[in-house]
Amino acid sequence: MPTEDKPEKTTQERGGEHGGGFGPAMGVEMMKKMMAQMGQAGGPMAMMQKRMEQMGQGKAGGEAAPPMQNMMAMCMEMCAEMLATMQQTTAMATFATPELRGLFSGWLDSLQAQVLAAITEKGEMRPAQLAQALNISEDGALYLLTQMARQGKVDIRVQVPKTP
Predict the structure, then answer these.
(1) In this structure, which of 35, 36, 145, 158 has its CB flanked by the most CB atoms within 10 Å?
(2) 56-110, pLDDT tens digit by residue?
(3) How many C-beta atoms lie closer than 10 Å to residue 130's C-beta?
């Protein structure tokens, strides 16, 4: 069955892929992290019991607060963290005018062109080498490379590093 060609979604439509707290992607990542913790060591109940035990160990005299109180405190702590993250994202979004988003997108396109030029010149590069060539952080280089790989602009080769 033929498929329709769909235009690639913009970064904003994808929920923000900047990893620094833009849009709903941050909430999704936080939920994934919490779900991963729940999946470890016997599931959600085991995780909650462990957390309740940890919270009780910090009490003077070894006397723990009632389990329900501990669980409520843990839930309130998580809610407060999520709310603070959402407030930070909202505050940052107020400054992200369409003009600034356009400028940022243009800057990323320019960096991607520099990445392609550097790789074309050298043939193959490690992220650290690319970061040095572009005068950006290694994390920035990795971000650009993964975005470009998703778009089919570069191929990424993974191997176990040689020990020095």
Answers:
(1) 145
(2) 555 555 555 677 777 788 788 888 888 888 888 777 777 778 888 888 889 999 9
(3) 21
Q: What are phi and psi of 68, to 5 degrees?
A: -65, -40
Is the backbone of residue 120 left (phi > 0), alpha (psi -120 to 50) or beta? alpha
Contacts of 80 (CB under 8 A, 6+ apart): none
User: Measured between alpha carbons, how far is residue 34 from residues 78, 115, 124 in Å?
Assistant: 10, 35, 38
Residue type for position 80:
A
Whole-angstrom distance, CA of residue 88 vs CA of residue 10: 22
The set of residues, in sequence order, having a beta carbon less than 8 Å from that of 41 and lying 6+ positions away, is 47, 50
Q: How many helices (H) and strands (E) does the chain have?
A: 6, 0
Contact 126, 161 (CB under 8 A): no
What length does the chain have?
164
What is d(CA 55, CA 64) in angstroms, rounded to the nearest whole number?
8
Is the whole-model pTM more than 0.70? no
